[in-house]
Amino acid sequence: MIVTCHIFKEMDDYTTSLDPETEMSCTLYLFRDVQNSDEIRKKLMNGELSCSIIKAAIVVDPLQIIVAANKAAINAKMDRLTTKSLYTEVLFNLSISKNISRALTEFGIHNNDINILVVLIHKEHDEKLMSKTIIDCIKGEKVPISRLAEFKDIELIEKMYKIERDELNISSLTDSVVSRISCKDFISIK
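and the corresponding structure tokens:
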């Protein structure tokens, strides 16, 4: 798996190329004080929005999302999705669980979530067209991705990824989370 980080600073969004074989990129948008999470969730479930929307509280670093998105894009390219869509595959890849329902519940947004991260996987020049519909339906403040750390819940992240304090003496939280996501297919964490 190769992830090439080409970050384009455009209105404080975050875009990076995924594995070259996929010919896809990933763009992240961060929103706070979202007032219509229930409406957004319904649109996602009905397939009206082509994106993943994740609780900002469980994201340590954009790298966490990029690794999951890259795995999803590769699986889609190889016709090996575990879930029904590219965007549910991102949520599934974020989880250390192999239970799809659990992964979607843990990482997908709920009706009362107010800080969210939007994940788009797209061809290089399709991002603007795809993002307009999504951004227009979110009633909240779009903020720079550089503010992501303000919204993370470290205790929740450590619990979800089963990270012990001792581990953080030799590894960063980001490295521990990304390692678990990357190795999910090969190990079982109890």
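(Above: one complete record from the training split.) The two ends are 25 Å apart (CA to CA).
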